Amino acid sequence: MGFIQKITWIRKFINKNHLSAFLFTSPSNVFYLSRFRSSNAFIIITPKNQYFLTDARYFEKAKKELKNWEVVLIKNGVFSFLKRFIKELKIKVLGFEKDDLTCEFKERLRIKGVKFKGFNEVLKDLRIIKEKEEIKILKEGVKKTDKIYKDVIEILRNFIFSDKKQDLTELKLRGLLVSKIFEVGGMGESFPAIIASGKNSAIPHWQSSGSKIKKNAPLLIDMGIIWKGYCTDFTRTLYIGKPSSEFKRIYEIVKTAWYKGFEKVRRGVPINEIDRTIREYFKSKELDKYFVHGTGHGIG
């Protein structure tokens, strides 16, 4: 769905819900609508206009790039400016993202004569269906992520077979991984990469630490990159050295469970069916109590 279709959809939403305008505050929705990244930006859409509000740090760049928007400079404090701007637009009923706005924000944005009407997941139906350009970006991001992983494997290979005595910690490996993200043109990590060696790898959301990468032990790498504003997520468990028969047994069970879940994936199949298929398989192997994470999740 292109820019015009998105704005048209929102204007129909405004009309259907008897609103004068809609205020978008969540960074993900502001980016989705504008394709512009800012740590301090808001979007206000009215039946006739669309406004992108940001501060002086981003204003000149936004003005240059956002040709379909009226770019507005936020001056003299966010709340006082927003109040004044909303009044100038003569807005009577303002829709907002109640699943994003904090209580404090809403309290400070009170405006005499303006009624606020909150909505949850306003753009969910739009964002859930990816347009061709978004799919292309996600595929590019996955390829870049895969390349970074292969580079990390090379680093580990050098570490294992090096004649020199060297220590490699979880944090150091994460640092090398992050540098690879920038080398391929990524914008950073989509979440703090998890590098977990040995027993640490049994904790799904371990925080990379100063622990040394152990030889003859498992290593978990859970990473993702931000590519053109979109996030990837990539997890692998490997073994540095010669794995035990027990490790190989569990590894094969997990791999089989993944394939069973993957075979279930079809258009229209509820996600909980995929999750249940995997859990039932683990239960048949008496391992279900160790499956403490969700089967998967969306990436935006």
Count of DSSP strands: 11
Task: Output the CATH homologous superfamily of the largest domain.
Answer: Creatinase/prolidase N-terminal domain
Number of helices: 10
CATH-derived architecture of the largest domain: 3-Layer(aba) Sandwich
Overall form = elongated
Q: What can be said about the biggest beta sheet?
A: 6 strands, mixed
Rounded to the nearest angstrom, the radius of gyration is 24 Å
User: What name does CATH use for the topology of the largest domain?
Assistant: Creatine Amidinohydrolase, Chain A, domain 1
Task: Return residue spans where pLDDT drops below 50 for at least 5 consecutive residues.
Answer: none
Report the span from N to C terminus: 16 Å
Assembly type of the chains comes to single chain
Tell me, what is the CATH class of the largest domain? Alpha Beta
If strands are numbered along the chain, what order do they take across the biggest sheet?
Answer: 4-3-2-1-5-6
Class from secondary-structure proportions: alpha/beta
Proportion of residues in extended strands: 15-25%
Mean pLDDT: 94
Q: Tell me the number of structural domains.
A: 3
Give the helix proportion (percent range).
40-55%
Which series of helices and strands comes N to C? Answer: HEHEEHEHEHEHHHEEEEEHH
Q: Mind sketching the topology for me?
A:
Elements: H1 3-16, E1 21-24, H2 27-34, E2 41-45, E3 50-54, H3 56-65, E4 70-73, H4 78-88, E5 93-97, H5 103-108, E6 115-119, H6 124-127, H7 132-161, H8 170-183, E7 194-197, E8 217-223, E9 226-227, E10 230-231, E11 234-240, H9 245-264, H10 271-284
Parallel strand pairs: 1-5, 3-4, 5-6
Antiparallel strand pairs: 1-2, 2-3, 7-8, 8-11, 9-10
Helix pairs in contact: 7-8, 9-10
